[in-house]
TrEMBL record:
GO molecular-function terms, A-Z: lipid binding
Pfam family, one: THAP4_heme-bd
Reaction(s) catalysed (UniProt annotation): peroxynitrite = nitrate
Name of the protein this chain belongs to: THAP4-like heme-binding domain-containing protein
CDD domains in alphabetical order: lipocalin_heme-bd-THAP4-like (cd07828)
Organism, scientific name: Adineta steineri
Domain THAP4-like heme-binding: 12-184
Length: 189
């Protein structure tokens, strides 16, 4: 049996709009006063269990054109730079609850547990626990907040923002906007 034929677990039906492969139309990273564009691909899949599996891959790109607009079509070379994967979970015992958790691990030596709420065609999660490998350099991540919003006019567009606080962020400051990504769905598989 093909896994694409396995039904989505009932508790995840409210976010099944996330399933598929999404590629960035625009993606910007901001860190320590610097900003640059990159490419990102998000794949969300399931195997019928009460969780979705997320794979997120970021690429540094050398664009073909001089206008500095990074795109999948004008990239000369894709250089992998960021990888993360994880599991989105909703309480399987009560489909009416809108709580969601994201268990995430990244190739930069971070692992986190993030929790939040589903609100229609959007959800927000924020870190509850952060693990860090022993040889990571400062600044350390203190907080991540991810906001996923399906476009109201086009269900093939997904907007994602990631806010972050680090050990260099003043405790009185709000988390800064670290990533801004607009994805377009390229496949439902």
């Amino acid at each position: 049996m093909s896994l694409s034929k396995v039904p989505v677990h009932k508790c995840l039906e409210k976010i099944q709009w996330l399933l598929g492969v999404w590629r960035s139309e625009s993606a910007t990273i901001q860190l320590e006063g610097k900003s640059f564009s990159y490419l990102s691909e998000l794949k969300c899949e399931h195997v019928g269990q009460p969780n979705f599996i997320l794979h997120i891959n970021g690429f540094n790109v050398q664009p073909l054109t001089n206008d500095n607009k990074v795109s999948w079509t004008n990239a000369i070379e894709l250089k992998p730079f960021h990888r993360e994967m994880g599991f989105l979970r909703v309480n399987p015992k009560d489909e009416t609850i809108n709580n969601i958790s994201y268990l995430n691990v990244q190739n930069v030596g971070l692992s986190n547990v993030e929790e939040g709420n589903i609100n229609g065609n959007s959800f927000t999660v924020e870190t509850k626990a952060i693990g860090r490998s022993c040889f990571n350099k400062d600044p350390s991540v203190q907080l991540l907040r991810r906001e996923y919003q399906l476009d109201e006019k086009d269900a093939n567009i997904l907007n994602v923002k990631v806010f972050m606080s680090t050990s260099r962020t003043d405790n009185t400051e709000q988390p800064f906007e670290h990533l801004t990504i607009q994805y377009r769905k390229i496949s439902n598989e």
